[in-house]
Amino acid sequence: MRKIYFLIFFTVFLYNCNNHGDKTFEDNYIQKTNTYLTKIINSKSDEEALKLNDTAYNTIIKAKNSPDKRNSLNRIIDNYFQLGRWEEYKTSSQNLLKLSLISSDSIYIAKSHRCLGNYYFNENVLDSSFYHYVKSEKIYKGADKGSYGIVLLKKGIVQLNANDFLGADLSLRKAYSILNKTDDYQRIYAALNGLGAVASELKEYSRAISYYNKALEAIKKGNLQTNEHQEANTLNNLGLVYSDLKDYKKAINAYTKALSNIKLKNQNPGLYSIIIDNLAYSELKSNNFVNLPGLFFKSLDFKNESKNQSSKVVVYIHLSEYFSQIKDTAKAIQYARLALDGSKKWNIPIFKIASLKQAANVDKNRSVQYSDEYIRISDSLQIAERNSKDRFSRIQFETKEIIQQNDVLEDRNRRLLYIFVITFILVALLFIVRAQRARTRELLFKQAQQKANEEIFNLMMSQQSIIDESRNKEKKRLAQDLHDGVLGRMFGLRLNLDSLNSSTDPDAPQKRNELLNELKTIEQDIREISHDLNREKLVLINNFVSIVHNLLEEQKSSHEAEVTYHIDTSINWDKIGNAIKINMYRILQEGLQNINKYAGAKNIKVDISGDSENVFLKIQDDGIGFDVNKKSKGIGMQNMISRTNDCNGIIDITSKKDHGTSIVITIPIEIKQPIEQTV
What we know:
mainly alpha; single chain; rod-shaped
């Protein structure tokens, strides 16, 4: 019967189970939902807020499952709670649970279970409420200490309502140990008030008084001034403990202090009527009938104006006791029957038991009938309580089994993760090995290329030596020809001319003319030797030019394309380093190969020119061309670019489909050695 007094404070717990923060939403539905939720803050009525919240819900369910969607849905659930729309609160919480399970979002799984626990507690479906709180508790335990404490508090209250006092005591103790480290005085108060109720039910009255006094301290520290009137509620509960101890003086003091709050009557008439009834009952028990039965009737008046009509049963029972004590049996029976009718009407088993017990005490004619019914209902109530406790234990046990199964799945997933990581490492190692082999092949290729370059260089140097040797031999031959031929003949002519100067012979002029003709012949011989020297210089200007000449002549003879080329003779190749010569030769060779393979050209033009700072190589063709921006460059083209870069040069590739290709390479001259000047 008195259980109702302990449950008055429960409504202070059902806080919003969610915390929200501002977020930038990317999805269009989420942006619209956020707009509706923002408008709710400034709504002028609950009807307007509900309409906006419904619109937000109908919008957000169209969005894809994402953290933003779940966060917005969480805010909508909070609004339904604040508006007292329990069915919408349930539906939206189930939707959040479904989405969270799909995405394995453990935080929102815990929150949605917590909200569903709130819903079923409000509907007084305690086993379902307990089930969801336990599910939420298991997730929060290792993730969120604060939320873990709140869920423990709510679970403890459910256990208290189901008369599982030992379970409630354990849950509420754990909750208090966590919450007491925070500044959440509202929940600290709730935990202490719950522990006081449990201790009172377990007949541990000194512990109950201690908890209620601590609850009053929490109210003062937290400055808890709400319409729930926590202080009046706690003083009422404290008065009930003193009543159980038959210390009615302290009980009356507690009730009187609670009623001293002038706002209580208007702001919480339900609690006000209960405290008046308890005060009247304590005065009845202390044989102080001055204010009786007026206080009982005053309590009834307030209960007639409140929604909780079922609580009138308690007042009827107290009035029956009062009239029985003053020997007014008729009224005692009358109020006992009113209590019995009310308990049957509202179908509250604990009220039925109290009403039957009182009826059996005052109505001697039907005492046996009332006593039998009292025993039957009491036994069934005990069985129901036992089943409820067993059901709670079974739910907790099944939840542990599920957790164990989840642990097995986690172990399996962990093993799969290890296998994946090991496989990934092996694949990565294979990739690294393969890449290393590729780098090794590239290095070998570069070494082979370097070797080939060295061979070309050696060949060029060998040919240069041969040319130098030939040049020296030719110089020696020319020197011999000049010394033995021209100089000897000129010496003889000089002697003859000297003799003619002193001669008086009439034939002297004729001989002089003959000697002059001989001089002309010698002059012609010298001119021919000079021309021969110039031709040799042009042919043997440098071995690089000869090699390029041979390459281009080979191109002419081996392929159909017409080749025209020009090599600037003013270039002093002695200035240019061998590395540049090798790279230019390779670039030209690669360019001709690309034209032969891909271009289908009819004409090829090669031009090698230079100035005081740079040497230029230009290769043109009238082939099919290609799109320079789209076509991927092959190894040949990459090699040309790479060789140009090695020489610190610039390569310009111009091509257009069906309009041929032009490659222009500019390389700065690297001075190799001082130039020998011919004396």
